[in-house]
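C-alpha coordinates for chain A. Residues wanted.
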Protein backbone atom coordinates (compact mmCIF):
# COMPACT_ATOMS: atom_id res chain seq x y z
CA UNK A 1 0.00 0.00 0.00
CA UNK A 2 1.34 3.41 -0.96
CA UNK A 3 1.03 6.28 1.53
CA UNK A 4 1.86 9.97 1.58
CA UNK A 5 2.00 11.60 5.00
CA UNK A 6 1.27 15.27 5.55
CA UNK A 7 1.96 17.18 8.74
CA UNK A 8 4.96 17.02 11.05
CA UNK A 9 6.28 13.45 10.79
CA UNK A 10 10.00 14.07 11.26
CA UNK A 11 10.24 12.16 14.55
CA UNK A 12 8.09 9.33 13.16
CA UNK A 13 9.90 8.53 9.91
CA UNK A 14 12.51 6.12 11.28
CA UNK A 15 9.77 4.10 13.00
CA UNK A 16 7.63 4.11 9.85
CA UNK A 17 10.57 2.84 7.83
CA UNK A 18 11.30 0.10 10.38
CA UNK A 19 7.71 -1.13 10.09
CA UNK A 20 7.32 -0.68 6.33
CA UNK A 21 8.23 -4.29 5.50
CA UNK A 22 5.93 -5.75 8.15
CA UNK A 23 3.07 -3.51 7.01
CA UNK A 24 3.69 -3.84 3.30
CA UNK A 25 3.74 -0.07 2.79
CA UNK A 26 5.89 2.39 0.89
CA UNK A 27 6.04 6.18 0.97
CA UNK A 28 5.16 7.56 -2.46
CA UNK A 29 4.05 10.93 -3.79
CA UNK A 30 1.03 9.29 -5.42
CA UNK A 31 0.15 7.39 -2.24
CA UNK A 32 -2.98 7.73 -0.11
CA UNK A 33 -2.74 11.10 1.67
CA UNK A 34 -2.60 10.63 5.43
CA UNK A 35 -2.92 13.76 7.54
CA UNK A 36 -0.93 13.39 10.77
CA UNK A 37 -1.83 15.63 13.71
CA UNK A 38 -1.37 15.77 17.47
CA UNK A 39 -4.50 15.29 19.57
CA UNK A 40 -5.40 16.23 23.11
CA UNK A 41 -4.53 12.69 24.19
CA UNK A 42 -6.78 10.21 22.44
CA UNK A 43 -6.04 8.17 19.31
CA UNK A 44 -8.21 8.87 16.26
CA UNK A 45 -7.81 7.07 12.96
CA UNK A 46 -10.05 7.35 9.93
CA UNK A 47 -10.44 7.26 6.20
CA UNK A 48 -12.87 8.85 3.77
CA UNK A 49 -12.35 7.20 0.41
CA UNK A 50 -9.14 8.73 -0.96
CA UNK A 51 -7.81 10.49 2.16
CA UNK A 52 -7.04 9.46 5.73
CA UNK A 53 -5.91 10.84 9.06
CA UNK A 54 -4.12 9.78 12.25
CA UNK A 55 -4.43 11.98 15.35
CA UNK A 56 -2.36 10.89 18.31
CA UNK A 57 -1.51 12.19 21.76
CA UNK A 58 1.72 10.24 22.32
CA UNK A 59 4.29 8.92 19.90
CA UNK A 60 3.54 5.24 20.47
CA UNK A 61 -0.14 5.84 19.66
CA UNK A 62 0.78 6.89 16.15
CA UNK A 63 2.18 3.45 15.34
CA UNK A 64 -0.90 1.66 16.67
CA UNK A 65 -2.89 4.12 14.58
CA UNK A 66 -0.82 3.37 11.51
CA UNK A 67 -1.53 -0.31 11.96
CA UNK A 68 -5.25 0.33 12.43
CA UNK A 69 -5.28 2.41 9.25
CA UNK A 70 -3.68 -0.35 7.18
CA UNK A 71 -5.79 -3.07 8.82
CA UNK A 72 -9.15 -1.40 8.27
CA UNK A 73 -8.24 -0.15 4.79
CA UNK A 74 -8.07 -3.80 3.77
CA UNK A 75 -11.78 -4.05 4.53
CA UNK A 76 -13.25 -0.60 3.85
CA UNK A 77 -12.45 2.80 2.39
CA UNK A 78 -14.60 4.61 4.95
CA UNK A 79 -14.12 4.20 8.69
CA UNK A 80 -13.52 6.23 11.85
CA UNK A 81 -11.91 4.89 15.04
CA UNK A 82 -11.59 6.69 18.36
CA UNK A 83 -9.68 5.10 21.24
CA UNK A 84 -8.89 6.36 24.72
CA UNK A 85 -5.83 4.83 26.37
CA UNK A 86 -6.70 3.24 29.72
CA UNK A 87 -3.17 2.72 31.10
CA UNK A 88 -0.33 5.21 31.11
CA UNK A 89 2.15 2.41 30.51
CA UNK A 90 1.54 -1.12 29.26
CA UNK A 91 3.92 -3.72 27.90
CA UNK A 92 5.84 -6.93 28.53
CA UNK A 93 8.52 -7.91 30.97
CA UNK A 94 10.93 -10.07 29.01
CA UNK A 95 12.87 -12.63 31.05
CA UNK A 96 16.46 -12.39 29.82
CA UNK A 97 17.98 -14.31 32.72
CA UNK A 98 16.90 -17.94 32.37
CA UNK A 99 19.30 -18.81 29.52
CA UNK A 100 17.26 -17.35 26.66
CA UNK A 101 18.80 -13.92 25.98
CA UNK A 102 17.23 -12.32 22.92
CA UNK A 103 19.67 -11.16 20.30
CA UNK A 104 19.47 -7.48 19.42
CA UNK A 105 17.77 -8.42 16.14
CA UNK A 106 15.38 -10.71 18.02
CA UNK A 107 14.57 -7.88 20.38
CA UNK A 108 13.93 -5.53 17.46
CA UNK A 109 11.52 -8.03 15.95
CA UNK A 110 9.59 -8.10 19.23
CA UNK A 111 9.55 -4.29 19.36
CA UNK A 112 8.05 -4.15 15.86
CA UNK A 113 5.10 -6.27 17.01
CA UNK A 114 4.74 -4.21 20.18
CA UNK A 115 4.66 -0.98 18.17
CA UNK A 116 1.81 -2.19 15.98
CA UNK A 117 -0.11 -3.24 19.09
CA UNK A 118 0.36 0.18 20.68
CA UNK A 119 2.35 -1.00 23.68
CA UNK A 120 4.59 1.69 25.09
CA UNK A 121 7.00 0.11 27.56
CA UNK A 122 9.22 -2.94 27.93
CA UNK A 123 10.97 -4.15 31.04
CA UNK A 124 14.22 -6.07 30.55
CA UNK A 125 14.56 -8.58 33.38
CA UNK A 126 18.31 -9.07 33.79
CA UNK A 127 19.61 -10.79 36.90
CA UNK A 128 23.21 -10.95 35.71
CA UNK A 129 22.87 -10.58 31.94
CA UNK A 130 24.30 -7.09 31.61
CA UNK A 131 27.95 -6.15 31.83
CA UNK A 132 29.58 -4.60 34.88
CA UNK A 133 33.06 -3.50 33.91
CA UNK A 134 34.87 -4.46 37.09
CA UNK A 135 32.95 -7.71 37.72
CA UNK A 136 34.11 -10.25 35.13
CA UNK A 137 32.08 -13.10 36.69
CA UNK A 138 28.84 -11.11 36.41
CA UNK A 139 27.05 -12.80 33.53
CA UNK A 140 30.14 -14.79 32.60
CA UNK A 141 29.27 -17.17 29.71
CA UNK A 142 25.61 -16.22 30.13
CA UNK A 143 25.14 -14.07 27.03
CA UNK A 144 25.11 -10.81 28.96
CA UNK A 145 24.36 -7.64 27.02
CA UNK A 146 27.07 -5.09 26.42
CA UNK A 147 26.30 -1.45 27.08
CA UNK A 148 26.34 -0.87 23.31
CA UNK A 149 23.75 -3.60 22.74
CA UNK A 150 21.43 -2.16 25.38
CA UNK A 151 21.80 1.31 23.87
CA UNK A 152 20.90 -0.08 20.46
CA UNK A 153 17.79 -1.74 21.89
CA UNK A 154 16.84 1.49 23.65
CA UNK A 155 17.35 3.55 20.49
CA UNK A 156 15.21 1.18 18.46
CA UNK A 157 12.43 1.19 21.06
CA UNK A 158 12.50 4.97 21.34
CA UNK A 159 11.74 5.48 17.65
CA UNK A 160 8.32 3.94 18.40
CA UNK A 161 7.81 5.86 21.63
CA UNK A 162 8.41 2.68 23.63
CA UNK A 163 10.16 3.18 26.98
CA UNK A 164 12.70 0.44 27.68
CA UNK A 165 14.12 0.12 31.17
CA UNK A 166 16.02 -2.42 33.28
CA UNK A 167 14.65 -4.80 35.87
CA UNK A 168 17.47 -6.14 38.03
CA UNK A 169 17.91 -7.94 41.33
CA UNK A 170 19.53 -6.18 44.25
CA UNK A 171 18.90 -8.80 46.93
CA UNK A 172 17.89 -12.36 45.94
CA UNK A 173 17.54 -14.37 42.71
CA UNK A 174 21.26 -14.02 42.04
CA UNK A 175 22.19 -17.71 42.12
CA UNK A 176 23.88 -17.60 38.72
CA UNK A 177 26.26 -14.89 39.82
CA UNK A 178 26.78 -16.03 43.40
CA UNK A 179 27.71 -19.57 42.35
CA UNK A 180 31.21 -18.45 41.41
CA UNK A 181 33.87 -19.12 44.07
CA UNK A 182 35.94 -15.95 43.40
CA UNK A 183 33.03 -13.72 44.42
CA UNK A 184 31.90 -15.67 47.49
CA UNK A 185 32.37 -12.56 49.63
CA UNK A 186 29.08 -11.23 48.21
CA UNK A 187 27.10 -14.30 49.27
CA UNK A 188 24.71 -14.66 52.20
CA UNK A 189 22.94 -17.76 50.87
CA UNK A 190 23.12 -19.43 47.47
CA UNK A 191 20.85 -16.80 45.94
CA UNK A 192 20.90 -13.81 48.28
CA UNK A 193 23.48 -11.08 48.68
CA UNK A 194 25.27 -10.54 51.98
CA UNK A 195 23.58 -7.27 52.82
CA UNK A 196 25.20 -4.67 55.04
CA UNK A 197 28.75 -5.27 53.88
CA UNK A 198 30.78 -2.54 52.20
CA UNK A 199 31.64 -4.87 49.32
CA UNK A 200 27.97 -5.59 48.65
CA UNK A 201 27.06 -1.91 48.83
CA UNK A 202 29.71 -1.10 46.24
CA UNK A 203 28.53 -3.96 44.04
CA UNK A 204 24.94 -2.69 44.15
CA UNK A 205 26.08 0.80 43.27
CA UNK A 206 27.92 -0.60 40.25
CA UNK A 207 24.92 -2.75 39.29
CA UNK A 208 22.58 0.22 39.28
CA UNK A 209 25.00 2.34 37.29
CA UNK A 210 25.68 -0.37 34.68
CA UNK A 211 22.03 -1.34 34.29
CA UNK A 212 20.62 2.18 34.04
CA UNK A 213 23.31 3.98 32.00
CA UNK A 214 22.33 2.65 28.54
CA UNK A 215 18.68 3.72 28.82
CA UNK A 216 16.92 7.06 28.30
CA UNK A 217 14.36 6.03 30.89
CA UNK A 218 14.90 7.05 34.49
CA UNK A 219 12.91 4.04 35.68
CA UNK A 220 14.53 1.00 37.26
CA UNK A 221 13.07 -2.11 38.82
CA UNK A 222 15.23 -3.16 41.77
CA UNK A 223 13.66 -6.60 42.31
CA UNK A 224 13.74 -7.84 45.92
CA UNK A 225 11.10 -10.55 45.49
CA UNK A 226 11.03 -14.00 47.08
CA UNK A 227 13.91 -13.27 49.45
CA UNK A 228 12.67 -15.69 52.11
CA UNK A 229 16.25 -16.76 52.88
CA UNK A 230 17.29 -13.21 53.70
CA UNK A 231 19.62 -13.03 56.71
CA UNK A 232 19.63 -16.79 57.26
CA UNK A 233 23.06 -17.70 55.94
CA UNK A 234 26.40 -15.98 56.38
CA UNK A 235 24.60 -12.85 57.59
CA UNK A 236 23.26 -14.83 60.56
CA UNK A 237 26.75 -16.08 61.39
CA UNK A 238 28.18 -12.56 61.32
CA UNK A 239 25.37 -10.59 62.92
CA UNK A 240 23.16 -12.97 64.83
CA UNK A 241 19.41 -13.06 64.42
CA UNK A 242 17.59 -10.00 63.11
CA UNK A 243 14.05 -9.81 61.81
CA UNK A 244 13.77 -10.07 58.06
CA UNK A 245 11.73 -6.88 57.97
CA UNK A 246 14.46 -4.91 59.72
CA UNK A 247 17.10 -6.30 57.36
CA UNK A 248 14.86 -5.66 54.35
CA UNK A 249 14.14 -2.03 55.24
CA UNK A 250 17.78 -1.32 55.98
CA UNK A 251 18.92 -2.86 52.70
CA UNK A 252 16.19 -1.10 50.75
CA UNK A 253 17.41 2.18 52.15
CA UNK A 254 20.92 1.42 50.90
CA UNK A 255 19.65 0.54 47.42
CA UNK A 256 17.39 3.57 47.22
CA UNK A 257 20.27 5.85 48.17
CA UNK A 258 22.15 4.62 45.09
CA UNK A 259 19.03 5.05 42.98
CA UNK A 260 18.30 8.57 44.22
CA UNK A 261 21.87 9.73 43.57
CA UNK A 262 21.26 9.04 39.90
CA UNK A 263 17.81 10.61 39.76
CA UNK A 264 16.17 7.27 38.99
CA UNK A 265 12.56 6.31 39.69
CA UNK A 266 12.51 2.88 41.40
CA UNK A 267 9.95 0.12 41.59
CA UNK A 268 10.15 -3.22 43.38
CA UNK A 269 8.16 -6.41 43.76
CA UNK A 270 5.80 -6.08 46.71
CA UNK A 271 5.55 -9.69 47.87
CA UNK A 272 8.09 -9.62 50.69
CA UNK A 273 6.33 -6.85 52.58
CA UNK A 274 2.96 -8.58 52.39
CA UNK A 275 4.51 -11.90 53.32
CA UNK A 276 6.23 -10.36 56.33
CA UNK A 277 2.94 -8.81 57.38
CA UNK A 278 1.12 -12.14 57.21
CA UNK A 279 0.81 -14.34 60.24
CA UNK A 280 3.18 -17.07 59.07
CA UNK A 281 5.54 -14.92 57.02
CA UNK A 282 5.01 -16.50 53.63
CA UNK A 283 1.46 -15.65 52.49
CA UNK A 284 1.11 -13.16 49.65
CA UNK A 285 -2.49 -13.61 48.52
CA UNK A 286 -4.04 -14.01 51.96
CA UNK A 287 -7.17 -11.85 51.88
CA UNK A 288 -6.88 -11.14 55.59
CA UNK A 289 -3.40 -9.59 55.52
CA UNK A 290 -3.24 -6.29 57.34
CA UNK A 291 -0.21 -4.03 57.06
CA UNK A 292 0.65 -2.82 60.58
CA UNK A 293 0.93 0.94 60.87
CA UNK A 294 4.48 0.80 62.20
CA UNK A 295 5.52 -1.33 59.20
CA UNK A 296 3.86 0.99 56.70
CA UNK A 297 5.52 3.99 58.35
CA UNK A 298 9.01 2.55 57.80
CA UNK A 299 8.56 1.70 54.11
CA UNK A 300 9.85 4.47 51.79
CA UNK A 301 7.11 6.06 49.71
CA UNK A 302 9.20 6.98 46.67
CA UNK A 303 9.38 3.38 45.43
CA UNK A 304 6.53 1.95 43.36
CA UNK A 305 5.22 -1.42 44.55
CA UNK A 306 4.63 -4.03 41.84
CA UNK A 307 1.84 -6.45 42.74
CA UNK A 308 2.29 -9.66 40.75
CA UNK A 309 -0.51 -12.14 40.28
CA UNK A 310 -0.58 -14.78 37.57
CA UNK A 311 -3.36 -17.21 38.43
CA UNK A 312 -6.54 -15.77 39.92
CA UNK A 313 -9.77 -15.86 37.94
CA UNK A 314 -12.19 -13.87 40.12
CA UNK A 315 -12.35 -10.06 40.37
CA UNK A 316 -12.68 -10.11 44.16
CA UNK A 317 -9.32 -11.88 44.47
CA UNK A 318 -7.56 -8.97 42.79
CA UNK A 319 -9.67 -6.35 44.51
CA UNK A 320 -8.79 -7.67 47.95
CA UNK A 321 -5.04 -7.96 47.35
CA UNK A 322 -4.99 -4.48 45.82
CA UNK A 323 -6.73 -3.26 48.97
CA UNK A 324 -4.07 -5.05 51.05
CA UNK A 325 -1.42 -2.97 49.30
CA UNK A 326 -3.01 0.41 49.89
CA UNK A 327 -1.69 0.89 53.46
CA UNK A 328 1.88 0.70 52.11
CA UNK A 329 1.26 4.23 50.81
CA UNK A 330 3.19 3.65 47.58
CA UNK A 331 2.11 3.95 43.97
CA UNK A 332 0.86 0.53 42.86
CA UNK A 333 1.82 -1.18 39.59
CA UNK A 334 0.38 -4.49 38.38
CA UNK A 335 2.20 -7.41 36.75
CA UNK A 336 0.24 -10.29 35.26
CA UNK A 337 1.58 -13.05 33.06
CA UNK A 338 1.49 -14.84 29.77
CA UNK A 339 2.41 -18.33 30.89
CA UNK A 340 5.43 -19.59 28.99
CA UNK A 341 6.92 -20.76 32.31
CA UNK A 342 8.18 -24.33 32.47
CA UNK A 343 6.60 -25.46 29.23
CA UNK A 344 7.26 -25.81 25.53
CA UNK A 345 3.91 -24.15 24.79
CA UNK A 346 1.81 -21.36 26.27
CA UNK A 347 -0.86 -21.84 28.91
CA UNK A 348 -3.35 -19.61 27.15
CA UNK A 349 -6.33 -21.04 29.01
CA UNK A 350 -5.01 -19.62 32.26
CA UNK A 351 -3.22 -16.59 30.81
CA UNK A 352 -6.07 -15.10 28.83
CA UNK A 353 -8.74 -15.68 31.43
CA UNK A 354 -6.69 -14.44 34.38
CA UNK A 355 -5.44 -11.42 32.42
CA UNK A 356 -8.92 -10.52 31.23
CA UNK A 357 -10.13 -10.31 34.82
CA UNK A 358 -7.01 -8.67 36.25
CA UNK A 359 -6.78 -5.91 33.65
CA UNK A 360 -10.43 -4.98 34.01
CA UNK A 361 -10.00 -4.74 37.79
CA UNK A 362 -6.89 -2.57 37.29
CA UNK A 363 -8.95 -0.14 35.23
CA UNK A 364 -11.63 0.01 37.90
CA UNK A 365 -9.07 0.44 40.69
CA UNK A 366 -7.17 3.23 38.95
CA UNK A 367 -3.93 1.31 38.42
CA UNK A 368 -2.23 3.10 35.54
CA UNK A 369 0.78 0.88 34.83
CA UNK A 370 0.57 -2.81 33.91
CA UNK A 371 3.03 -5.43 32.67
CA UNK A 372 2.77 -8.90 31.19
CA UNK A 373 5.58 -11.02 32.61
CA UNK A 374 6.88 -13.89 30.52
CA UNK A 375 9.15 -15.88 32.79
CA UNK A 376 11.52 -18.51 31.45
CA UNK A 377 11.82 -20.71 34.52
CA UNK A 378 14.11 -23.76 34.42
CA UNK A 379 15.92 -23.11 31.17
CA UNK A 380 13.30 -21.48 28.95
CA UNK A 381 12.18 -24.16 26.51
CA UNK A 382 9.46 -21.76 25.33
CA UNK A 383 9.81 -18.31 23.80
CA UNK A 384 8.19 -14.86 24.07
CA UNK A 385 7.03 -14.73 20.45
CA UNK A 386 4.64 -17.60 21.13
CA UNK A 387 3.08 -15.32 23.77
CA UNK A 388 2.13 -12.56 21.32
CA UNK A 389 -1.57 -13.39 21.57
CA UNK A 390 -1.37 -12.66 25.29
CA UNK A 391 0.40 -9.36 24.64
CA UNK A 392 -2.30 -8.48 22.13
CA UNK A 393 -4.91 -8.94 24.86
CA UNK A 394 -3.01 -6.47 27.05
CA UNK A 395 -2.90 -4.02 24.15
CA UNK A 396 -6.60 -4.27 23.39
CA UNK A 397 -7.48 -3.81 27.07
CA UNK A 398 -5.26 -0.74 27.10
CA UNK A 399 -7.37 0.96 24.44
CA UNK A 400 -10.84 -0.09 25.55
CA UNK A 401 -12.87 0.70 28.65
CA UNK A 402 -14.62 -2.66 28.33
CA UNK A 403 -13.15 -6.11 27.91
CA UNK A 404 -12.16 -6.60 24.26
CA UNK A 405 -14.28 -9.09 22.36
CA UNK A 406 -12.90 -12.33 20.99
CA UNK A 407 -13.50 -11.11 17.45
CA UNK A 408 -11.60 -7.90 18.15
CA UNK A 409 -8.69 -9.83 19.65
CA UNK A 410 -8.64 -12.27 16.74
CA UNK A 411 -8.65 -9.53 14.11
CA UNK A 412 -5.93 -7.53 15.78
CA UNK A 413 -3.53 -10.41 16.49
CA UNK A 414 -3.88 -11.64 12.91
CA UNK A 415 -2.96 -8.21 11.60
CA UNK A 416 -0.15 -7.46 14.08
CA UNK A 417 1.54 -10.86 13.93
CA UNK A 418 0.35 -12.52 10.72
CA UNK A 419 -0.82 -15.53 12.76
CA UNK A 420 -4.43 -16.55 13.40
CA UNK A 421 -5.63 -16.55 17.00
CA UNK A 422 -6.65 -20.20 16.71
CA UNK A 423 -3.14 -21.09 15.61
CA UNK A 424 -1.71 -19.44 18.72
CA UNK A 425 -4.32 -21.13 20.91
CA UNK A 426 -3.25 -24.59 19.80
CA UNK A 427 -0.05 -24.08 21.79
CA UNK A 428 -2.11 -24.45 24.98
CA UNK A 429 -3.00 -28.02 24.00
CA UNK A 430 0.57 -29.14 24.52
CA UNK A 431 -0.33 -28.99 28.22
CA UNK A 432 -4.12 -28.66 28.35
CA UNK A 433 -4.62 -32.38 27.89
CA UNK A 434 -7.33 -34.82 29.01
CA UNK A 435 -7.25 -34.85 32.81
CA UNK A 436 -6.38 -31.16 33.13
CA UNK A 437 -8.57 -28.79 35.07
CA UNK A 438 -10.61 -26.34 32.92
CA UNK A 439 -8.32 -23.79 31.23
CA UNK A 440 -5.38 -25.66 32.77
CA UNK A 441 -5.87 -23.55 35.88
CA UNK A 442 -3.49 -25.81 37.86
CA UNK A 443 -0.63 -25.16 35.43
CA UNK A 444 -0.04 -28.77 34.39
CA UNK A 445 2.99 -29.06 32.12
CA UNK A 446 2.99 -32.57 30.59
CA UNK A 447 4.63 -31.32 27.40
CA UNK A 448 7.80 -31.00 29.43
CA UNK A 449 7.71 -33.85 31.91
CA UNK A 450 6.52 -36.43 29.37
CA UNK A 451 9.39 -35.54 27.05
CA UNK A 452 12.05 -35.64 29.75
CA UNK A 453 10.81 -38.52 31.90
CA UNK A 454 12.67 -41.80 31.56
CA UNK A 455 10.72 -44.63 29.91
CA UNK A 456 12.21 -47.24 32.23
CA UNK A 457 11.45 -45.28 35.41
CA UNK A 458 8.05 -43.91 34.40
CA UNK A 459 7.90 -41.28 37.13
CA UNK A 460 4.76 -39.69 35.71
CA UNK A 461 3.09 -42.80 34.29
CA UNK A 462 0.63 -43.16 37.16
CA UNK A 463 -0.42 -39.54 36.67
CA UNK A 464 -1.55 -40.12 33.07
CA UNK A 465 -2.97 -43.66 33.15
CA UNK A 466 -6.09 -43.99 31.03
CA UNK A 467 -5.93 -40.52 29.50
CA UNK A 468 -5.06 -41.64 25.94
CA UNK A 469 -2.45 -38.96 25.55
CA UNK A 470 -0.87 -40.64 22.53
CA UNK A 471 -4.12 -39.95 20.68
CA UNK A 472 -4.30 -36.41 22.02
CA UNK A 473 -0.84 -35.55 20.73
CA UNK A 474 -1.39 -37.32 17.39
CA UNK A 475 -4.45 -35.15 16.85
CA UNK A 476 -2.58 -32.03 17.98
CA UNK A 477 0.27 -32.73 15.57
CA UNK A 478 -2.18 -32.81 12.67
CA UNK A 479 -4.02 -29.70 13.83
CA UNK A 480 -0.82 -27.66 14.18
CA UNK A 481 0.34 -28.84 10.76
CA UNK A 482 -2.96 -28.03 9.06
CA UNK A 483 -3.04 -24.46 10.39
CA UNK A 484 0.52 -23.54 9.47
CA UNK A 485 1.10 -20.89 6.82
CA UNK A 486 4.54 -20.90 5.18
CA UNK A 487 3.88 -17.38 3.92
CA UNK A 488 3.70 -15.99 7.48
CA UNK A 489 6.98 -14.63 8.85
CA UNK A 490 6.32 -16.19 12.27
CA UNK A 491 5.27 -19.59 10.95
CA UNK A 492 8.61 -20.97 12.11
CA UNK A 493 7.36 -20.69 15.72
CA UNK A 494 5.15 -23.72 15.14
CA UNK A 495 7.78 -26.10 13.75
CA UNK A 496 9.05 -27.04 17.20
CA UNK A 497 5.56 -27.57 18.76
CA UNK A 498 4.57 -29.72 15.79
CA UNK A 499 7.71 -31.85 16.19
CA UNK A 500 7.13 -32.10 19.96
CA UNK A 501 3.61 -33.40 19.40
CA UNK A 502 5.12 -35.97 17.01
CA UNK A 503 7.40 -37.18 19.81
CA UNK A 504 4.70 -37.26 22.45
CA UNK A 505 2.20 -39.17 20.31
CA UNK A 506 4.67 -42.06 20.63
CA UNK A 507 6.38 -41.42 23.96
CA UNK A 508 3.57 -40.26 26.27
CA UNK A 509 2.24 -43.71 27.11
CA UNK A 510 5.24 -45.78 26.07
CA UNK A 511 6.31 -46.41 29.66
CA UNK A 512 2.83 -47.59 30.61
CA UNK A 513 2.77 -50.06 27.70
CA UNK A 514 6.32 -51.17 28.53
CA UNK A 515 5.43 -51.94 32.15
CA UNK A 516 2.29 -53.79 31.05
CA UNK A 517 4.24 -55.96 28.62
CA UNK A 518 6.95 -56.65 31.21
CA UNK A 519 4.43 -57.63 33.90
CA UNK A 520 2.75 -59.95 31.39
CA UNK A 521 6.15 -61.42 30.41
CA UNK A 522 5.26 -60.67 26.77
CA UNK A 523 8.66 -61.17 25.20
CA UNK A 524 7.44 -60.54 21.66
CA UNK A 525 6.02 -57.14 22.49
CA UNK A 526 9.08 -56.22 24.52
CA UNK A 527 11.38 -57.17 21.67
CA UNK A 528 9.36 -55.08 19.22
CA UNK A 529 9.50 -52.11 21.58
CA UNK A 530 13.28 -52.39 21.81
CA UNK A 531 13.90 -52.97 18.11
CA UNK A 532 11.27 -50.70 16.58
CA UNK A 533 9.48 -48.53 19.16
CA UNK A 534 12.38 -46.93 20.97
CA UNK A 535 14.47 -46.17 17.84
CA UNK A 536 11.37 -44.59 16.26
CA UNK A 537 10.93 -42.31 19.27
CA UNK A 538 14.62 -41.45 19.20
CA UNK A 539 14.36 -40.36 15.57
CA UNK A 540 11.47 -37.99 16.36
CA UNK A 541 13.46 -36.59 19.29
CA UNK A 542 16.37 -35.86 16.97
CA UNK A 543 14.02 -34.04 14.59
CA UNK A 544 12.56 -32.06 17.50
CA UNK A 545 16.00 -31.10 18.76
CA UNK A 546 17.03 -29.84 15.31
CA UNK A 547 13.86 -27.76 14.98
CA UNK A 548 14.25 -26.38 18.49
CA UNK A 549 17.90 -25.49 17.87
CA UNK A 550 17.01 -23.63 14.68
CA UNK A 551 14.33 -21.67 16.51
CA UNK A 552 16.60 -20.86 19.46
CA UNK A 553 19.49 -19.59 17.37
CA UNK A 554 17.11 -17.50 15.29
CA UNK A 555 16.01 -15.38 18.27
CA UNK A 556 18.38 -16.01 21.20
CA UNK A 557 22.09 -15.82 21.85
CA UNK A 558 23.77 -19.27 21.84
CA UNK A 559 24.53 -19.25 25.58
CA UNK A 560 22.05 -21.44 27.37
CA UNK A 561 21.26 -23.65 24.40
CA UNK A 562 23.84 -26.10 25.71
CA UNK A 563 21.47 -26.82 28.62
CA UNK A 564 18.66 -27.80 26.25
CA UNK A 565 21.14 -29.76 24.12
CA UNK A 566 22.21 -31.72 27.17
CA UNK A 567 18.58 -32.45 28.05
CA UNK A 568 17.85 -33.80 24.58
CA UNK A 569 21.04 -35.81 24.80
CA UNK A 570 19.82 -37.29 28.07
CA UNK A 571 16.53 -38.33 26.49
CA UNK A 572 18.32 -39.99 23.58
CA UNK A 573 20.92 -41.85 25.63
CA UNK A 574 18.29 -43.15 28.04
CA UNK A 575 16.16 -44.41 25.13
CA UNK A 576 19.25 -46.24 23.92
CA UNK A 577 19.89 -47.72 27.37
CA UNK A 578 16.25 -48.79 27.61
CA UNK A 579 16.57 -50.67 24.31
CA UNK A 580 19.71 -52.42 25.58
CA UNK A 581 18.12 -53.34 28.91
CA UNK A 582 15.00 -54.75 27.27
CA UNK A 583 17.00 -56.73 24.70
CA UNK A 584 19.26 -58.16 27.40
CA UNK A 585 16.18 -59.30 29.29
CA UNK A 586 14.30 -60.92 26.41
CA UNK A 587 17.48 -62.68 25.28
CA UNK A 588 18.13 -64.02 28.76
CA UNK A 589 21.30 -62.17 29.62
CA UNK A 590 19.71 -60.61 32.70
CA UNK A 591 16.99 -62.23 34.85
CA UNK A 592 14.87 -59.12 35.29
CA UNK A 593 14.66 -55.40 34.61
CA UNK A 594 14.80 -53.90 38.08
CA UNK A 595 13.44 -50.53 36.96
CA UNK A 596 10.28 -52.24 35.70
CA UNK A 597 9.89 -54.29 38.86
CA UNK A 598 9.10 -51.10 40.78
CA UNK A 599 5.50 -50.16 41.46
CA UNK A 600 4.39 -46.93 39.76
CA UNK A 601 3.31 -44.22 42.21
CA UNK A 602 1.72 -40.83 41.61
CA UNK A 603 4.44 -38.23 41.26
CA UNK A 604 2.88 -35.69 43.60
CA UNK A 605 -0.36 -34.52 45.15
CA UNK A 606 -0.83 -32.34 42.07
CA UNK A 607 -2.78 -34.93 40.10
CA UNK A 608 -6.16 -35.47 38.51
CA UNK A 609 -7.29 -37.79 41.30
CA UNK A 610 -7.70 -34.76 43.57
CA UNK A 611 -8.61 -32.21 40.89
CA UNK A 612 -5.20 -30.60 40.58
CA UNK A 613 -4.54 -31.42 36.94
CA UNK A 614 -2.25 -34.01 35.39
CA UNK A 615 0.83 -32.76 37.18
CA UNK A 616 3.28 -29.93 37.48
CA UNK A 617 7.02 -30.17 37.91
CA UNK A 618 9.28 -27.15 38.04
CA UNK A 619 12.66 -28.74 37.43
CA UNK A 620 14.10 -30.83 34.62
CA UNK A 621 16.32 -32.81 36.95
CA UNK A 622 13.26 -33.95 38.92
CA UNK A 623 11.53 -35.02 35.71
CA UNK A 624 14.48 -36.99 34.44
CA UNK A 625 15.31 -38.97 37.58
CA UNK A 626 14.50 -39.47 41.26
CA UNK A 627 18.20 -39.90 41.91
CA UNK A 628 20.88 -37.38 42.84
CA UNK A 629 21.92 -34.93 40.14
CA UNK A 630 23.89 -32.86 42.58
CA UNK A 631 24.13 -32.57 46.33
CA UNK A 632 25.96 -29.61 47.76
CA UNK A 633 26.59 -29.00 51.44
CA UNK A 634 29.58 -26.74 50.93
CA UNK A 635 30.05 -25.79 47.27
CA UNK A 636 33.69 -24.92 47.84
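Reply:
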Amino acid sequence: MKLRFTGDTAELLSGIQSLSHDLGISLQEDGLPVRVQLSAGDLEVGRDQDQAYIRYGQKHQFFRGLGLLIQHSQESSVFHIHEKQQFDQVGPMLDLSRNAVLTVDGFKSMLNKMALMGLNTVMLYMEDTYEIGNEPYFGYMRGQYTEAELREIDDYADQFGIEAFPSIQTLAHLEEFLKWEPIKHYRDTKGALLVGSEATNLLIDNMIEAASAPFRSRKIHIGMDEAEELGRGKYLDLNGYESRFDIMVSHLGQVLAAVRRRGLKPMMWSDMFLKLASGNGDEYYDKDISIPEDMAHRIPKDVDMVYWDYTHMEPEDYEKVIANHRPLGCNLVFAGAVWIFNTFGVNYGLSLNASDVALQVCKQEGIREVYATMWGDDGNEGNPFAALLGLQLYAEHAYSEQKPTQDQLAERVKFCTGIDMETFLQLKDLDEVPGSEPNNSKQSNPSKFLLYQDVLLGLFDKQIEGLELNSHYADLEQRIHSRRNPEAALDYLFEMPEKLAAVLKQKSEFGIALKRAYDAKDAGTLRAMAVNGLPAIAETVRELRAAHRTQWLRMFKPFGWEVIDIRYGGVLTRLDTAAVRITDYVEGRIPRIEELEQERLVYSTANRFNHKGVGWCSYYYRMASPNVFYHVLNPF
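The chain has three domains: 2-83, 89-427, 442-624. The chain has a mean pLDDT of 96.
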